[in-house]
Structure formats: C-alpha cells, structure tokens
Design brief:
Elements: H1 3-15, H2 18-25, H3 29-43, E1 48-51, E2 54-57, H4 59-83, E3 90-96, H5 98-115, E4 119-125, H6 128-136, E5 142-145, E6 155-168, H7 175-180, E7 183-186, H8 190-199, E8 208-210, H9 213-223, E9 226-230, H10 231-239, E10 244-245, E11 252-260, H11 267-275
Parallel strand pairs: 3-4, 3-5, 7-8, 7-9
Antiparallel strand pairs: 1-2, 5-11, 6-9, 6-10, 6-11
Length: about 280
C-alpha cells in the first residue's frame, strides 16, 4: 500500500474536500483523486460517498481509517528510528492536545531532554481520540490529555492540575464587567465548559469563541478584553502588569492525565516523563 496514498485518504477524510486536501498536501487535485482511486481499486470498494458539496466516508472507508492512521504512523516511527545513526539514542514520541502544550508542557520538554540525554524527542499535536489510538498501537509512547478516556487497555495517571484564571486588560474589571465587554470564551474542553456554565449561567453571547488559549491571549494583549487562560501562560504577564487577574472570578481547575501502554518498552523514559509533575 502506498503511504502517500494513505496520507491523502486521511487528509480527504479530515477536510471532506478534495481540493482543500490537495492544497494542504501541495499536490494537484487530480493527484488526490488518483491516489484515492488507487486505494479503492486495491481494496475493491468505494471509500467515499461523493455528492455535490458533500463528501462522506462509506462504511468501508470508516473501517479503513483506523488501519490507515496506524500504518502511516508506524511508517513514520520506523523512519524516525532508522534515521538515528547513534544506536545509543532512543526515539521517544510524546503527544498532546494543542492547548496542553501551551499551558503545561513547554517546561516539560526541556526537562525530558535534560533528564534523558539518550532520548530523541518527537512532539506531536492531535485530538484526544487520535492520541489514545496512537498510544494503544504503540506508535506513540505517552500522551497528555485533560480528560480521562477510561480505556481499560491503557494506563492512565493523573499527573498534575492546572488552574485556569480569568484575566483582563482592565485592572479594575470585576467578573461581571469582564463578561459583558470583549469577553473571549476559550473552549478548554468539556469539564471546563461544564464548570464555566455553572459559574456563569447568565453569560451573554460572547462575540468571540476560540479553540486555543494562545489565540485569546494574543488578541487580548493586542486589543484588550478578558478570558480564562491557563495560569502558567499568564503568570509572568500578571507579574509585569501587562494583564490583570480578575480577583472575584472563580478559579477553574483541570486535571491533566498521562496515557501510556503497559506493554511499551520505553518504561524508564515514560516514568521519567511523569516524574516532572511530581
């Protein structure tokens, strides 16, 4: 099976658009179509239902998706290991959701590199479902997520807790002031959303919703406003009076979990990775 064809299949599923997949992969749309046709000929069934302005996976496509992701990631890992000339060096693949890298894992990267000089670190960003699958099939050594996926075949360890605080560009803003004008609602995950709704049941419709805290933070620094941001991301900004803590706003805590497989041979490095949070 052609790895580039499988990558194209995954990208078409992600974008649900042949043209956008072609742009993302820097190839022509005809190349994308040819690669999908090649896989369909090899497996003997259609993979996509193609309707005007609507592309969806067939049942066979749904079945192939998991195998395609596993085959691509296994190939990537094989290339990573083969490309390391020094036999004493060991590749270590860590993943997380985008928001967690910003809020908890920048210092962790420095720690693991200093702690394990024999490690070649590969850091990746995926959604929680993909991270869990990657850890399950051993193409990722460890993944950090906000919510416990409760998968029986994976080890899941709570490693730390991150406080999310409301910050504002206005020094005198109260929580009621902050949510009225220029409030940015950051989608920090399901448990955060539940807590946020509990604390702010009458929240006016925010004009801006974002998926990443970094987007909200950059916007507030440039244009003013308020948002809930992970405390490690704004600690220095608060100390320098570039942003101000909204003191009467509740702090929302989120647990961080490490996912790994008990069958993973890199047990020592996984233990070191978790020890950063001890």
């Amino acid at each position: 099976m052609d790895i580039d064809a499988l990558r194209t299949f995954i990208e078409v599923n992600r974008t649900l658009h042949f043209g956008q997949a072609a742009r993302n992969m820097y190839v022509s749309q005809s190349t994308v179509s040819a690669r999908i046709k090649l896989i369909e000929e090899q497996v003997g069934v259609p993979l996509f239902v193609r309707q005007r302005n609507n592309i969806q996976l067939t049942a066979a496509g749904e079945k192939l998706l998991h195998y395609a992701e596993s085959m691509v990631t296994t190939w990537i890992r094989a290339r990573q290991e083969i490309s390391i000339d020094d036999e004493k060096l060991v590749p270590f693949i860590a993943g997380s959701t985008p928001s967690l890298w910003d809020s908890a894992l920048q210092d962790w990267m420095k720690f693991i590199i200093n702690k394990k000089p024999d490690v070649v670190l590969h850091a990746e960003v995926h959604d929680a479902e993909v991270l869990a699958r990657r850890v399950q099939d051993l193409t990722m050594d460890i993944a950090f997520v906000f919510d416990n996926p409760q998968l029986l075949d994976l080890e899941c360890k709570e490693v730390t807790e991150i406080p999310f605080v409301m910050v504002s560009s206005d020094k005198s803003a109260t929580k009621d002031d902050a949510i009225k004008d220029n409030y940015i609602l950051v989608e920090w995950g399901s448990s955060f959303s539940i807590a946020h709704a509990k604390y702010f049941p009458d929240l006016p419709q925010p004009r801006i919703r974002v998926m990443l805290g970094r987007i909200a933070l950059d916007y507030i620094l440039a244009n003013g406003g308020a948002a809930y941001i992970a405390e490690p991301m704004v600690k220095d900004l608060i100390s320098n009076n570039e942003l101000f803590l909204v003191k009467d706003a509740p702090i929302i805590q989120r647990n961080v979990y490490a996912l790994y497989s008990a069958e993973n041979p890199n047990k020592d490095t996984i233990k070191s990775a978790c020890s950063f949070f001890a």
